[in-house]
Amino acid sequence: MLKSARKPQTKDAEGRMPLTEHLRELRSRLFKSVVGIVVVTVATAFFYNEIIETMTSPVLKSVGCDTSFLELAKEADGHCARITMNGLITPFTLALKVSLVGGLVFSSPIWLYQLWGFLAPGLHKHEKKYALSFVAAGFPLFLAGGYLSYNVLPQAAKVLIEFTPVGVNNFLPLDDLLDLVLRMVVVFGLSFELPLLLVLLNFGGVISGSRMLGWWRGMIMGITLFSAIATPSTDPLSMLALAAPIWVLYFAAAGISILNDRRRRRNDPDAGLDDDEASDLDLTPEAVGEMEPVSASPALPSADDGGPDGDSLPARRDGFDDAT
Question: What is the DSSP letter of 122?
Fold first, then answer.
């Protein structure tokens, strides 16, 4: 006995579906994301040496060493670092880690698209617009922070290497150097997302622009302390290189929030009121003007009068006709 073909389910207009369908969709999108990451990771493994040299060459060049990590670094005035690897398994684990990080970064359009495809059906139209706007702004901000760290780190390395005593070789493990570069890129990139988070809270009605601007003393102090902790060197130039752009972005976020609050008040004067606060009532008296005379309504036809076509109207019921 043949089984009947499974009928395709109609898609809900608001994206609602049973729990089992949600789990199936999540499994499908996770599978596609993992396949994309694995494929790109395997492709990235062929460029393992080029990726390492791109990440380490600015630091090595800043301390006067050879820009290629494959050759031993040459000494320069006693202040130079030798790139080393410790252990038999370290080269393999380092290659695996670099390839996996490269696969995650370069396959981000794939798994971000799958994540958006899973979340988008549950969002309203205006929520989708806001989400796309914030993602479109957040990605360039993260890249700007990562690019800034890529240029600040060589200057920080130049200051740090000066603490090496004269005549002493500085052996720098390659995996430690890569971890430092990746950590700096992530920290700088995420710190550039702070203004976007403040704007998101303002659009959600959590923080007003005036209150945000009133925090400027504490925010400048907090950003400065964060920059002093995040930067690996102790020199003030590296700290200011991270703190100054975040200061500018913070004040830009406060300005955008103030403009948004003004727009919200124009569209809705009661937008700034709390849930238990009553709006102001306009009790100013206005002139009514002259009243127009009301014309007398025509008398209702009786049951004996004829209708418009000459037909007789129906008889009254309980003293009322159909017109009444």
Answer: G
Residue 28: helix, strand or coil by DSSP?
Answer: helix
This prediction has a pTM of: 0.63
First to last CA, the chain: 69
CA distance 83 to 176: 10
142 close to 194: Cβ distance less than 8 angstroms: no
In this prediction, residue 76 has a pLDDT band, given cuts at 50, 70 and 90, of very low
pLDDT at 74 > cutoff 50 = no
| Pair 10, 17: CB distance under 8 Å | no
Average pLDDT over residues 152-163: 77
Structure tokens at 154: 């060589």
Instruction: For residues 122 and 131, give the distance between their C-alpha atoms in angstroms, rounded to a whole number.
Output: 12
Lowest-confidence region among 80-84, 118-122, 242-246, 310-314: 310-314
d(CA 204, CA 201) in angstroms, rounded, equals: 5
166 contact partners, CB below 8 Å, separation of at least 6: 78, 79
Joined tokens for residue 310: 């000459």
